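Morning!

As promised:
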Amino acid sequence: MQPFLKSALCAAALHASTAGAAPQEITPAGSQPATTGSAEYFTGQVQVEPVWPANGEINASGGRVTFSPGARSAWHTHPRGQRLLVTAGVGLTQEWGRPVQEIRAGDVVWCPPGVKHWHGASAHSAMTHLAVTGTTAQGQNVQWLEKVTDAQYQGK
Amino acid sequence: MQPFLKSALCAAALHASTAGAAPQEITPAGSQPATTGSAEYFTGQVQVEPVWPANGEINASGGRVTFSPGARSAWHTHPRGQRLLVTAGVGLTQEWGRPVQEIRAGDVVWCPPGVKHWHGASAHSAMTHLAVTGTTAQGQNVQWLEKVTDAQYQGK
């Protein structure tokens, strides 16, 4: 092949892939296995599914978390905050020093950096939320604290 | 009040509000009105609901977009990329120079920065996705380009 023709073909190939940018990626439903929430950080039955990782462009991961009735996270804080989008059921959340609040499908929670909180299902209904969790440049996104007692969960 | 006692009370008040951090906020379902997607940037009937804004901690907004059958975005790029989580129905997406691909509930799409793409419903099914869109420090998150023709939509 003549050198000038080879160069022209290379240029055409680069153009076809949007100037050499990485291609769009589709991750099929069900291809990222769920794991059981660790008993160290959760009370009750909790399933955690990765949805997307934080990367160099968007500094927050996405994860789908399903809490069985009565199940909840431990108390914890997030160094860059967290958005929760409730996608099914009825849940509870509480910020340290404030009352327990009910959250329902379609509600969105913003937990600012450093705010101590927990979230989970209500006593008689499961709850699923998408958790969009800010991640530091060093890869930190949560600091786990003590478990939520039954009395705290019941708002006593 | 004696100065030392005043100081002790101030410290206690700061402690109760998680060291003075902003409180957790709950945005109730249905409180953020949907708007109709502009005919300048969309073809067909499209409803756009804000879910959360980008902020100084998490550099991506969340928005729920519902496309009626046959509806789609115009071609566009994102300066910091975009995650799409399909939450209902069957849709289509295409990267410039590549084939149209089908996307279904539970699929997740990563569109890297600068990649020219479109997304929308399939011809006979509506599609809803959560769009998590990276936002620059200057507040930019999309560059709109030309509309998707019927022939492009049909993969011809």
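The first strand of chain B starts at residue 25 and ends at 27.

Hope this helps with the figure draft.
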